[in-house]
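Note to self: keep these together.
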Amino acid sequence: MKIAVTHLTRMQRGYFCAAGVNVADGANIRPVQPMGRLRDLYCARRGGPFDMALVVDLGPTRPVPSLPEVEDHEFTPDHARAVQRIEPLLFWEMLCHLSKTSLKQMFGPDLRQVGRDRAIVDEATGSASLGCLAPTGRVAFVVDENQRGVPSLRLRFTDGSLSLNLSVTDQRLWADDHSTPRWELVHRVKRSLERGVPCLLSVGLTRPFSSQEGQPREVAVARRRRPGRSAILAPLRTVPCAAWNGGQRVPEADRERWNRRYAERYAERAYDFVPSGWLSEIEGRLLPPHAGARALDLACGPGRNAVWLAERGWTVDAWDLSDVALSILVCEREERAAHGFPLPIDVRETDLNEAQIPPATYDLVLTMLFLDRRLWPTMAAALRPGGLLAFETFVDLPGGRTSEVSPEHLLQPGELQAAFEALGLGTLFFDEDAQRGTACLLARRM
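Structure:
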């Protein structure tokens, strides 16, 4: 059986719980061992197969359902292996499709509220023990300490009927000791939720457990279960699959390399949408010539320059091979739209080495720190009459700061200007800066 992992929950130190959906039919599946809990060594951060948005082949499984844990399937952890990572926005689309809008829809009509912020279901009742919820209204992320001074992360939310205050046990938000929050990531998520960024929650029922003295604990009074776990799945807005899949497939090795780079760089800090310094310097020359003027940002990455152009009135097509980078851009676009500031940006995941750019389509073609000379004739042809090319990338200059750039990604002195003038463009600005190690060209199609 193969599952797409949608739940990754910290347990007692050294253990975790994973769950997901069967890729064959969309049913919720919780892999469990015949004896004992899953150890941390099976988490991806410890070299194991389980991580959010990973497809995992569990190997042979045996269903062992008991109400309300109808999702339980026994498996052998050593047989499990990671198969592939799901593209972020496709994963989000899957979650949106599977999510419920009410907790009773998820857990069954036996679920009932107790007090102001708890809900329970009697033992051996209910229709499920986990699921994905699209909450009603804003979600409050509360960072505090308990009476013993231990950090506490909680979510307050409602589904329109039940109001809950649940502990956040998403393993990604906790360090390996399971008690220290990963503060940079916690505050990043908190800020996003405070800005009203929509999210989905994976929610589960706690199992009854007893104290060391054998007496029932308050949170699991005899034969009761309550929603006691919640994990932030993705602070992103949904993007139609048709728009996301409009690009070409890219070489897996290249895409994975760039995905890893962006994921590692921005795992615990927000992306800074400050544009290229050179673009800011020539801002007066990059005003859109008319309403609806179109710009193409090739190799846009997470989209700092695409956002800058859209803010100034351009309608932007943003192309890159990294779905991780583009997901950052889409999140920013959708955040702004939710606050009444829509950005006219369309994203496309495509292999830029084989990109087919339509001719005479754009009033501006922009590329920053990307070099593929085979694309130059197509880039020039993509400009409408009077259209602009803005190009900045690395150049091999004496004393230049390009020692970490591979030779195939370096221009020769004067090469950029000469090449595009030969393609019929007139130079408006050209500069080669040894200190920055880049060549900058602003040119117009005659």
